[in-house]
Amino acid sequence: MSEKLLSSFANLQVAFKELDADGSGSLSYDELVAALSKLDIGMTHDQMQDLMTSMDTNMDGSIDFNEFKHRFSHVLSRGKATDEMKKHVARIQTKIVEKFGRGGKGIKEAFRNFDTDENKRITYTEFSAVLKRDYNGDDWTTSDQRRAIFNYLDDNKSGSISYSEFKEAFDQREDRRDEALQGAMMQKIFEAIRRGRVQLRSAWRSLDKDNQKRIDDLEFRQGLDAMNALLDSPITAAQLDLLLKSTLRDNQGLVKYEEFLDSFQVRKLDHDGHTKKSSSLGAPKQ
After folding, report:
1. pTM for the full model?
2. Is 175-279 in CATH node 3.40.1350.10?
3. Which of 4, 30, 84, 96 has the highest Cβ tally under 10 A?
């Protein structure tokens, strides 16, 4: 979704105004669904509801601009960064965790470390000096690169880095919003496969002409397409791509479909204390 927003709109304010069809200053669920459908994001209605819930921090049933910005600003700003910039930011982020620990407390301590005059703002002079002194900045950046990193962190181009800008760039917990949403999407995919795995096994066996119990990515897709016809909420193309990326393959790049489908089983103890198979609770064991 972030990539679609980035390619479709000049900035977050423009995106929000375009999505806010009635001009009320907030996004309703219907507006969000309509907008995402036009952008061809590849999400089911249930997943859009999950996204809406993750964005609606004050739980009033709508998304205001601050909630919208909080959800996407860090992703979009990072999306505009070069690979070199991402590596620099990741390196500083790693050092922050090593020196100060994870989470809000570590970020606050790191910010204070850079804010040497304690005025709640980090100037370029402070940033460059501390980066060289405490982060070995001279070993992996030039003065031009340090200036570029500073300008990247100074999101509103005020000439200094605020705590919110610093936190947005370096707090690793920001990434967890995306991981959590991706996890919710995968959970729904797993549930769909669990429900349709009998039909899916049959479809894959019909495609496996040489009975090797292995299929390539095209056959994998064809089997899921056949199963999709039976589902109320079919797996989308975007979800299928995500599933393919996370699926284990053999040394020839083929999926062992029997093992794949068996991974949607979990084991529980029977009355005698022995393990027995039961239906999957979600993510496969692999």
Report:
1. 0.40
2. no
3. 96
